[in-house]
Write a structure and sequence with these properties.
mainly alpha
């Protein structure tokens, strides 16, 4: 699976706020779609925080397995990996990240089709093509939620609740070296250096 990243401003296509392109009678419906997507996005962030965080740490995999079993029961997804099972940190993070990205893509797909149905049913209120309107709404939705995705990495590496006030803002935060090791970059995986900044 390839992950393509676009800047939020490029996704917005000049639209600062979704209300700019949403006729007043449709705002409640669009707001409901946005709220549902934001809730789903928050859940996937929680999977990263409560699942991937312990899965990356030796001896903490029991907490990750509990979440993994719950995901398997509710979503029919296979069990997630942990370092206690011999996986490397980059492999564990990649597995969680792409699983959550896949779930987020599904939530976006549902949001787009709901927006499309709204635009087709109310095409008289929308200037231009209903499909293009729904696509632009979906892009603005992604742009608005995109700032949360980097937190997935930070929350899996650092426990927010055990951090000092300075750490909570992550002003001086540095990614651990395992993020720049295979499979993400060329240097081979080195467990000794994995958690160094």
């Amino acid at each position: 699976m390839s992950l393509y990243l676009y800047s939020a401003s490029k996704l917005r296509n000049g639209v600062e706020d979704w209300r700019e392109i949403t006729p007043q009678p449709l705002q409640r419906a669009v707001e409901a779609v946005r709220k549902d997507f934001e809730e789903q996005s928050w859940k996937f962030g929680e999977i990263m925080k409560t699942g991937c965080y312990p899965a990356l740490r030796k001896g903490s995999s029991d907490r990750a397995r509990e979440l993994s079993l719950l995901l398997e029961q509710q979503l029919g997804r296979p069990l997630l990996r942990t370092v206690d099972e011999g996986q490397t940190e980059p492999a564990v993070f990649s597995f969680y990240f792409y699983r959550c990205a896949d779930l987020l893509a599904g939530a976006l797909r549902r949001a787009f089709f709901t927006l499309r149905d709204i635009s087709l049913a109310q095409s008289a209120l929308i200037s231009g093509s209903p499909i293009e309107w729904a696509a632009l709404q979906a892009k603005v939705l992604v742009a608005d939620a995109s700032s949360k995705i980097p937190l997935w990495l930070k929350c899996t590496c650092d426990n927010l609740f055990e951090s000092s006030d300075e750490d909570i803002e992550w002003k001086a935060w540095r990614a651990p070296r395992w993020l720049c090791m295979q499979p993400f970059a060329n240097p081979p995986y080195d467990r000794v250096k994995a958690w160094r900044e």
